[in-house]
Amino acid sequence: MECEMGVCVGESDGLTFWLARPQDYDEVMAISKGIYGGTDYLPHRYHSWMTEPNRVTIIARRDGKLVALESGLVVDGGTTEVVTGLRVCPSERGRGLAGVIQRVTDRYIKQVYPSVNIKRLTRSDDPGPEKLFTVLARRAVLSLQGKAETFDSFVLGLKAKLANMEKSGEVTATSHELVVLKDSHHLKALLLDPDLSSRLQLPGGAIIQDWLPLKPMESNLEVLRRSNLSWLADISNDKPTFMSCCTPPYPVPFNGGSLRLNIDMYGEVLFLAIKAMIIHLEQVREQIYGGVVVHIYIPHSLWEGMKKFCEGDEGVKQYMDFWEQLFLERELS
Q: Could you tell me the pTM of the whole model?
C-alpha cells in the first residue's frame, strides 16, 4: 500500500511497517544515538542504502513515530539475506520490537526474493542457543584510536619495531611479499580460486568485509567493488596464504566526530598481518584528519601478537579490550 508516508508493507501490534525513504533520515538518526559506542556506520551509509541493488530497508512506526529499523541485503546469487542496521527506539527496547521487525523484514524479503533460504548476520555478542542461529565463525577485533597527526609517528614506530624483531629473530620474515592489488582481473581470479577458503581459513567460508559476510563467488564481486576497498595479497606464488582489505575512512559520531576505517585480514601469518596493517595505514594517511578509529578484524591466533606490537605509542592507543565479531546463520522457512 502506498500513501504520503511511502510504501506500507505490513501492520502488527499497533505498528505499521514501511519501506524506508531518504526523507526518514533524521528520524532514523534520532533513534540511533550512542549505537556502537559512537562508531555507527549508518549516518554515513543510510542514503546509499536507499538505492543499493538488492537491499531492502524497513522502518516501523507507532502512532506515526519512527521506532525501529532493519535492513537486509540479498547476496550469494540470491540465496542469502544478510541483515544489518537493526535499531530500536530507546523507549521501545525490551518489548520484543526487534523480533517483530526482523520477522516482517524476513517475510518481505522472501516475497520479493523467493530463492532466499538462508539468513546470515554478524554481531559482537552471542545471541545464545535459544535464537536458533548457528555460529559459523568468530574473529578477534583489535581497536585503535588517535589523532590523525599522530599516525605518522605511530607507523614509523611500527616499521622500526618490525625491523628490530626481524633482526633479533623474534618474528620470522617469510619470503612472501605483500603487494597492492590494483588489477581487478587479478583480484577476481584470486577471490574466485576454489582453494581460497581452505588456504586462507576464511571465517565460515566467507569473505567478511566490514561486517558483511559474502561467499567468494562471482555474483558477490560487485558488492565488494561498490565498497571501494584497497586489497593486499601475498602473491609470491599464485596461491596467496594471506590477504587483507581496508575500507576508505568514513565519518562516525565518535568523540564529537571522527573517521573510522576497518581492516579485514585473512590468513594466520603474524609477520604478514603486521606488514599489512602498516601498508593500509600508510595508504590512508592523506585521507585522515581529526580523530581516527581503526578496527582490525583478525584470527584469534593473531590478536595477542598484534596487540603487543601496537603498544607503547603515546598518540595511537588501543581503546577497547579484546572483543569478537561473530558470524551467524540460520535457515529461512
A: 0.93
**Largest alpha-carbon pair distance within the chain?**
70
Long-range contacts of 92-96 (CB under 8 A, 24+ apart): 92/62, 92/67, 92/68
Radius of gyration of the chain (CA): 21
pLDDT band at 333 (very low <50, low <70, confident <90, very high): confident
> Cell 558477490 belongs to which residue?
220
Listed in sequence order, the residues at least 6 apart from 248 whose beta carbon sits closer than 8 Å to its beta carbon are 228, 230, 261, 284, 287
What region, left, alpha or beta, does residue 5 occupy, with left being phi > 0 and alpha being psi -120 to 50 degrees? alpha
Please report, as a single letter, which amino acid is at residue 232.
L
Q: Tell me which range, 29-43, 107-121, 175-189, is most confidently predicted by mean pLDDT.
A: 107-121
Q: How far is CA 301 from CA 82, 214, 267, 305, in A?
A: 27, 22, 10, 8
186 vs 109: CA distance, rounded Å: 34
Q: Which residues make beta-bridge pairs with 71?
A: 57, 84
String of b and e for 255-292 (b: at least 16 CB within 10 Å)?
Answer: eeebbbbbbbbbbbbbbbbbbbbbbbbeebeeebeebb
Q: List, in sequence order, every residue forming a beta bridge with 135; answer none if it has no partner.
A: 328
- Whether the pLDDT of residue 157 is over 70: the answer is yes
Do 81 and 119 form a contact (C-beta atoms < 8 A)?
yes
- For residues 108 and 55, give the distance between their C-alpha atoms in angstroms, rounded to a whole number: 12
Distance CA 271, CA 119 (A): 35
C-alpha cell at 36: 556502537
Helices (H) and strands (E) in the chain, counts: 9, 18
